[in-house]
């Protein structure tokens, strides 16, 4: 199991497999080296320090394809109180039980809607219900999804601080995010546990919404349940750097299959047909996502 993360002047660091992993939480930079970089932390604020540029360089809001709109650095102690509950709800056997029960109840639960599940549309709901579904999804479900990732990350690393935020991915996908810079130190089941934590927590949300809909069958609750189900399916897609993307990367035994794909194009990595096909599909989906977003914007003014 990886060591607990230490922190000095907002520099988080860990020693793992004879490598030093240093992460500057203020400017979102990471250094990995076999040299004992921790020896330079004491005078890191001095211009003569080899880590001075790493320490003082400004924060950049990501790439154009993943632009950070909002970033918040929080003390982990202030938000860890709920993490044990989150870990409990992410237990595999409990997730399976909740998933089976929720699927079994879905036909009866959705019977309150004017149209069948196969013809589901937000047009079935009033303007108030659509607004409440959107706000609940944005302000409750998606943050809880990210908190589930944090819970597993905190379980293994106990970082003094953690970064949450809101970004725009591929010019069209507004997403919450949590920074897990030491993610690559995890191996096997531990890495899968972190990757799938958000989706598994949404299965728990699906189950609790099913219980509510059983007692109080309303179109709002059922609508929220279906939107949450749609987000679960979307997050499992192995593209667009969603949870399924990172899970598939782990199965392929690479840190990031699109980074490997780009390395193949520049002949830095060995050619792999599976990653080549996935890379092409992923780029097509990114392009379609951008075109769809641009079309939606243009249609507003036509």
From TrEMBL:
Highest rank taxon of the organism: Bacteria
Record keyword Transmembrane present: yes
TM stretches of this protein: 93-113, 125-144, 164-182, 275-298
Keyword list, A-Z: Membrane, Transmembrane, Transmembrane helix
Transmembrane listed as a keyword: yes
Name of this chain's protein: Peptidase, M50 family
Organism: Streptococcus macacae NCTC 11558
Lineage: Bacteria, Bacillati, Bacillota, Bacilli, Lactobacillales
């Amino acid at each position: 199991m990886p060591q607990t993360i230490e922190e000095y002047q907002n520099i988080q660091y860990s020693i793992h497999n004879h490598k030093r992993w240093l992460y500057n939480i203020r400017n979102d930079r990471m250094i990995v080296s076999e040299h004992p970089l921790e020896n330079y932390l004491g005078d890191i604020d001095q211009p003569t320090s080899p880590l001075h540029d790493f320490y003082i360089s400004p924060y950049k809001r990501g790439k154009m394809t993943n632009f950070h709109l909002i970033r918040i650095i929080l003390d982990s102690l202030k938000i860890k109180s709920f993490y044990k509950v989150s870990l409990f709800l992410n237990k595999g056997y409990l997730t399976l039980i909740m998933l089976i029960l929720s699927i079994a109840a879905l036909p009866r639960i959705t019977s309150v809607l004017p149209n069948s599940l196969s013809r589901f549309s937000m047009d079935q709901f009033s303007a108030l219900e659509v607004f409440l579904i959107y706000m609940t999804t944005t302000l409750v479900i998606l943050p809880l999804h990210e908190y589930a990732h944090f819970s597993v990350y905190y379980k293994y690393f106990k970082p003094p601080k953690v970064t949450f935020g809101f970004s725009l991915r591929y010019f069209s996908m507004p997403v919450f995010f949590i920074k897990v810079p030491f993610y690559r130190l995890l191996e096997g089941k531990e890495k899968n546990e972190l990757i799938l934590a958000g989706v598994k927590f949404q299965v728990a949300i699906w189950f609790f919404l099913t219980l509510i809909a059983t007692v109080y069958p309303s179109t709002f609750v059922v609508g929220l349940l279906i939107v949450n189900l749609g987000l679960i399916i979307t997050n499992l897609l192995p593209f667009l750097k969603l949870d399924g993307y990172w899970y598939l990367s782990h199965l392929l035994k690479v840190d990031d299959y699109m980074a490997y794909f780009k390395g193949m194009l520049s002949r830095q990595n060995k050619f792999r047909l599976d990653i080549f096909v996935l890379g092409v599909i992923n780029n097509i989906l990114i392009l379609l996502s951008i075109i769809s977003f641009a079309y939606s914007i243009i249609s507003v003014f036509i």
